[in-house]
Every structure is written in C-alpha cells, then in structure tokens.
Amino acid sequence: MEMAPFETSDEPNEATNSTRRILVLFAHPSLDRSEVNRPMAEAVRDLDGVTLVDLYAEYADFQIDIDREQQRLLEHDVIVFQHPLYWYSTPAILKEWQDLVLEYGFAYGSNGTALQGKIIFNALTAGGVEAAYKAEGYNHFTIRELLHPLEQMALLCGMVYLPAFALFGARTAVEEGRASQHVADWTTVLEALRDDRLDIATARDLPRLNTDLDAIIREA
Amino acid sequence: MGGLLFQAFIYLCAAVIAVPIARRLGLGSVLGYLLAGIAIGPVIGLVGSETREIQHFAEFGVVMMLFLVGLELQPRMLWQMRNRLIGLGGLQVVITVLLIAGAALLMGVYWSVALTIGLIFSLSSTAIVLQTLNEKGLTKTEGGRSSFSVLLFQDIAVIPMLALIPLLVLPELAGGVPEGTITTGGHQGEVAHNEDLSLVAGLPGWAHALVVLGAVATVLLGGHFLSRPLFRFIAESRLREIFTASALLLVIGIALLMTLVDLSPALGTFLAGVVLANSEFRHELESDIEPFKGLLLGLFFITVGAGMNFGVLFADFATIMGLTIGVMLIKGLVLYGLARLFRLDAADRWLFTLGLAQAGEFGFVLLSFSLQSHVIPSELATTLALVVALSMLLTPALFILYDKLVLNRVPEGKAQEPDQIDETGKVIIAGNGRFGQIVNRLLVASGVQTVVLDHEAEIIDMLSKFGVKSYYGDASRPELLQAAGIESARAIVIAIDDRQRAVEMVEHVRRHYPQVKILARAYDVNHLYLLNKAGVDIAVREMFDGSLEIGKAALKAVGMHPFKVEKMSQAFRRHDQAGLDGLYELWDENTAMSSNKALLAGAKEHGARLKDMMEADRMQHHDRSERGWTPPPRHHAEKLDE
Questions:
Q1: How far apart are CA A161 and CA A209, in angstroms?
Q2: Does A109 lie at the interface with B, CB-CB under 8 angstroms?
C-alpha cells in the first residue's frame, strides 16, 4: 500500500537532442512485490524523451480511455510494453489495452494507418531460465516464438517489430546480482533508441534484443 | 479595573506585535514572547514590579503544559521509544547536570547552588526545538526522533526536579522566613496563600504518607473510572463552554488537591494526563486546554523578558557571554558524545548536537521556583536568566550552522534519500456515522492509521462495544483538528451530517493545510458544487454509488447480461460525471437550482443526450467501451492478401 503509483504526465519528458519519443506502457498488477520491473520503471521515468504510463494505476478499474491512449500513440515514435511474462503473454490489462485501443480504422484497416512505421517491442521479465525457452526445454518455444501474436499484431498495424528486451530467471535476478546490470542495459537501450544510435535493421532479426548490446548500439 | 485593562492591553499588544515578527524571522514564538517582555520591561519601562505577581499566576501554564505532555504519552508509544527515552534522555540529563554542576563548583559556587544550576541548564527548549524541527521537516529523521526523546525525558524530569529543589534550600536565604511555611513540594507562588488550607499540616509522618497516597490514588482511579461517565454526561449537554469549563476544572482541581497534600501540581496533572491519554475525550481536552496553556506560557515568557536586568548584562557582558558559550559547549559535547554512542550518522548527529545545545523555558521555571524556594540568591538568578535567554537567542544561529554543515559534509544523494519515513501518513475521519464507519473500516483493514472524530458521545460509546476507537469532539472546530494531528495527516475524510459545516471545514483545511488531501461526502449536487467551490479534492454524492448498484441489480433482474449491465452502468457514470462538470459552469451559489433557468435547460438537454446515448448503445454499439470490441467490417480481411 505504500507503493505510490507512477505519476504520468501527458507530455513526453522534454527531449533535448532526441529524434524519437518513447512511450513505455508499464503493466504490473502487484507492484509492491516487483523486484526488477519496478526499478526498471523508476530508472526511465524521468529520462528525456520517455513517457512512462503505469496502466494498472491509471486504469485500476480497467476503464481504458481509448481516445486518450490513441492520442498518446500518435505523440510517440516507439511503443514499449513493459511487463512480467504471464502465461507466455502480457498481463490482462495490456491485452485489454490492445483490444480497445488498436481499433479498426485507427491501427489497421483501409484507413487505419496511424501507427505505420512506429517501432514496438516488449520489455519483459520471465521466471524460467533461458534454456527452458527452446524446443528441447520445458517451455518448448523460444520467447520470440511465444510472442508471435504480438509480432503479427505489429505487422498488421504496419509497425516495425523488434524482439523482446528480456530478462530470464527473473525471480533470482536480485540475489544473483544480475538485476542492476539489466536495469542499466534498459536505460542504455531506451537512450540509444531515442537518439537513433540503435541498429534497427540488425536488431530486428535477433532472438532477443539484449543478446549483445554492443553489437547493435553505437557509442554516443 | 482601569489599571488591569491597561496592563492586559500592554501585554497583549506586545505579544501580538512581537510574536508574529519573531516567527517570521524564524526565531519561534518563545523568543517572540521573551522579546516582547524585554521591549515592555527593560527597554520601554511600561511594566515594572507587578510582573513578579503576574509571573506566579502565569506559571500555571506550566502545569497545563505538563497535563498536555501527559495526554500525548500513550503507554504503547512510551514503550516503543523506551531505549532512546531512557538511554539518550537519561544519560543526557545526568551527565549534563554533573558536568555543569562540577564546573560551577570549580568556580567556587556552594554545592547545592551548583547542583541547582546543573539542573536548570540540563534542560533544552522543547518549544523552540520541536517547532524548528517541524518547520524544517526534520521530525521524522533519526536526529529528529532522538531530539524528541531527549526533550520528552527532560519534560518528565522537570517533575522530580521541582520536588528536589526545595530540599536544597540555603539556610542564610531562608533565614527571614518562619520554619514550616517554605513550600516543600508544591511549587507555585500561590501556594503561599493556601498554606492554611493544607490537609497534611501537623499530621504525623505515617498519616501524611497515607493522605498523599490517597490523593495520588484519587487522581489515578478517578481519571480511569470516573472521567468517562462524567465527560459523557457533560458532552451530552451539547454546550461547548461547559466542556471547556469542566476541562479547566479538572486541571485546576487536581492542581489544588496536589497543593493541599504538598505535592507538585505539575506531577498531579501530568499523571492525570497519562491516565486520560487513552480516553476518547483526549483530543477534545487537548484542544480545550491548549489555548489557555499557550496564553499563560506566553505571559510567563513575557514576564521573564520584562524581568531581565539589562544593567547586569551590559555591566558584565563578557562574563555572561562567556558563561553562555561555556554552557552551550558543555551541552553540545555531551550531546555529540551520546550521538556517537547511539550511532547516529553525520547529519543526524549534528542536528542532535546543535539543536539541543540551548537552555530552555523549563530552565526559567526552575529558576523562578529556585528563587522562591530560597535555593539560589537573586543576583545569581539574574545572571542565570540572562544566560538561559541568550542561549535560546543563539539557537536559530545554530540551526543555520547545521544547514551549512550538512550541506557541506553529506553527499547530496544521501541527503535526498527518502529514508526513515516509516509511516504511510494517517487519515483523519470526521464523522463516524454510517458513512464514516465504512470508510474507516476499509482504511483500518488496509493498515492505514486513522483518527476518527465524532460529536455524538452515544455513537462513540456504541462503536467502542464493537472495538472501534473514536474520539469525542466537534470536528469542525479548528483546534480539535489540530489536536487530532491534521498537520501531519495525509488526508481528511469529511463525513459529517451538517452540510454547511462540511463546506466550512473544507475551506478551513484548504486554507491552512494545503498539503492535506480533502475528501468529502456530498449530500446532493448543490452540496457537491459548494464543496467544489470550497476547494475539495474529491467529493462523492452519498447516494450515488448505492443507487447505481441497485440499478444494476434491477437490470440483471430483468434479464440483461451482467457484463452488458456493467458497461451500461459505466457509460451512465461517465455521462453523469460529464454532465456534472458541464453544469457546474451554469451553477450559481445564490440561485436555487430549481429556479436557475440556464442550469435547468442544460440539465434537461444533458438528460436527453443520456437517453440518446443509451439507445445508440443498444442499436449501434457506440458505447465507448464497446467501441473497442467492435469487430472489423465484414469482408475486411479479404483485402489483406492483396
């Protein structure tokens, strides 16, 4: 209960030398138990050019304001779904958000061109270790395969889909000392996207976005 | 009569001018009163020797203050802070007394006088320090809490000190007074007038002890068992001034009883306060006594200021300055050592050391008491009073030094850490009827601390049978809100029946405590608008949600799909809210809504739109939430393969 929701301003944070404005749609239904997602959200909340929306805080009753969300999409160039992986997909509110906001005539359909060319990807944390996410592992599919519905959603809307920025074994990341590096990488990725220093063409084909950040990000 | 009015005029005038200026300058009200006294006494000379008599009268403020200190001391809270209270507070007082008394001995002062001086200077200024900590928002820091513990211990330690000092009487000073008339336990000047009223004069030792025990038992047992039915009886009379009168009667009665058995009145009222700390009448008592205490203590400080001897100060400026700095150095060193011992970190250590290094208002009390009790000679008392006052005057400078030290020494990131705030902040609930009760239950079940106020003694009584604690008092009174802790509250829920008073409360809280969120129960739309205008953060019509729930149940009863019902009611709620927002523009406080033509027309039009919207929902799926679940047009997919 002492976890205050993140404040959202309707303007993206002032971006000084940026070329892209980034919208992080953050969905975590149990924020006071979060170990990785919360620090990730806090790290980028005040970043120039980034707007962070705490969906569960803003729409605690699931009454998503479609017009307002569509306006937000129009005002940004990069859309990120940030969330823990729930049953190989997003938490419920992000699905609700897709069902309501990505309307025919807005996001897809003959006149639905509002999102064309925008970049979209998931920043997710998964409980299982990476080895489990392959044909031989107990999850049988790679994370990229499991997210195919989202990838196809992006394609139908004419968006540029990037593979997920993923943390595996998230439940033990803090005690194993992997969390802080992940949070730092997260900031690096958003800054690089904002300043157009991330090699989109190479990144599109990776199994996940953070396999080797040095290979796809140019120094500032 | 004319003389009395003139005196009252002079004192009030000085206070009214000096105190606000002192506060504005960040000096605090105690220094303001002192300066006011200095202005009308030594500087202008408007008041003279009568200040002594007034001072005896004003000392009653101290008795009231200890009653209030007692009221604040719930046993649970004391237990939680026992280590700091006894460890830090106890060591501070004992070590400081010993060091200062030792220094005085070295300077050739007689031992009993030296000990008295040690006692006087061991105390710090609760009034100045707590106020400054509050203003700087440092109350919740480790340094602030430690300071509070020490101040609290000192306030309590005053009581045994008042009992101890008469035993230190100097024979050569008391020489002129007949044996037996020296007050041996009661400390007020007026005690002298009551000598013949003593219950214990002439009794043998064992009977004396029995009477004293009986008196203390009366206070404890009476406070515990009698106060509740008595206060409830008085509360039911619904006469505010009679409750105030009974609160005063309580304090004065106990003080009198203690005086009759030669005990300190301060001790008696303190005990009564502790006994009543868990009573539902606590906040009401606090708010009733507080103004009297404030005025009397203010008067006390004015008389101290007026009694300052500037001749002595200027004649011997170097000595007095030297003594002041010496005292503050000793106190500071003791505090710094204790802070290290108790492992406070740098910032907190400096706050603790610099904040408590002055002498305080209780020093004046002990001083004037010692003088009356013939414990110290009057020339020495004059000098000591100057030292106490000067050290208090230097305190704001020390707080400035603290700011400088902390900004330089502590890395910035650390200072900004939101540490040590372990409270979620409490919520005050005004009105504990059917509405307030539900609010309270939800908050308490979620672990939020609440303070519940109600003016119906019967309701409080009834709820206590269900194990719900609430306090008696009229929540629309500013003093009661203050006693309930509005300054540190996160939010206030106004759930009282009286519509007019609810609006006034919103105005009051908005003006004086802008940081507090105000949530209010509105009776109807007109009341909602009045609350809005008064500056409420969130107001909710009391019947709206209940009615909507029944409406939903009715729709389900006629066979509508529950999810459809949910969407309809949400659409209805949004539409209704939009209407409320829109009609607010047309609303006029001074025109009844039923005769406000523009508003009526607007309401009618908006109502018609609701019907259209609901129709459209059914026919065309244009309800906003359904909009998103609308499937794409038929045959849309056929174009995708092109």
A1: 11
A2: yes
DSSP 8-state code for residue A13 = P
Nearest one of B27, B125, B56 to B361, comparing CA atoms: B125
The HSE-up count of residue B90 (CA atoms within 13 Å, CB side) is 7
Tally the C-alpha atoms within 13 A of residue A153's C-alpha that lie toward its C-beta. 18
Chain A positions in Cβ-Cβ contact with residue B621 (cut-off 8 Å): none
Angle, CA B511 vertex, CA B506 and CA B516 arms, to 5°: 70
For B629, the closest of A2, A99, A108 (CB atoms) is: A99
Q: Across residues B6-12, what is the average pLDDT?
A: 85
Q: Each residue of B56-84: pLDDT tens digit?
A: 788 788 788 888 888 877 777 778 888 88
| Nearest-angstrom CA–CA distance, B258 and B253 | 9
**Is some CB atom of chain B closer than 8 A to the CB atom of A111?**
no
pTM for the complete prediction? Answer: 0.65
Interval B446-492: pLDDT, tens: 888 888 988 887 777 777 777 777 888 888 888 888 888 888 899 99
- Find chain A residues with C-beta within 8 A of B631's C-beta: 104
Kindly report, residue by residue over A14-70, the tens digit of the pLDDT. Answer: 555 558 999 999 999 999 889 999 999 999 999 999 999 999 999 998 989 999 999
Give A-chain residues touching B633 at CB under 8 angstroms. 104, 109
Q: Count CA atoms within 13 Å of residue A35 on its CB side.
A: 16
Cβ contact B632–A104 (<8 Å): yes
Our CA dihedral for B577, B582, B584, B587, rounded to 10 degrees, sits at -130
Q: Which of B611, B596, B593, B602 is nearest to B525 (CA)?
A: B593
> Which H or E run includes B430?
strand B427-430
Q: Which two tokens stand for residue B444?
A: 């308490």
- Burial readout B409-421 (b: 16 or more C-beta within 10 A, e: otherwise): ebeeeeeeeeeee
Residue spans of alpha helices (H) in B261-377: 265-276, 282-306, 310-315, 317-341, 346-355, 361-372
DSSP B607-628: HHHHHHHHHHHHHH--SHHHHT
pLDDT at B337: 92
Report how far residue B362's alpha carbon sits from residue B62's, in angstroms, rounded to the nearest whole number.
Answer: 8
Q: Calculate Rg over the CA atoms of chain B.
A: 31
Q: Does A99 touch chain B (CB under 8 A)?
A: yes
* Cβ–Cβ below 8 Å for A103 and B627: yes
Of B447, B628, B631, which is closest to A1 when you measure between CB atoms?
A: B447
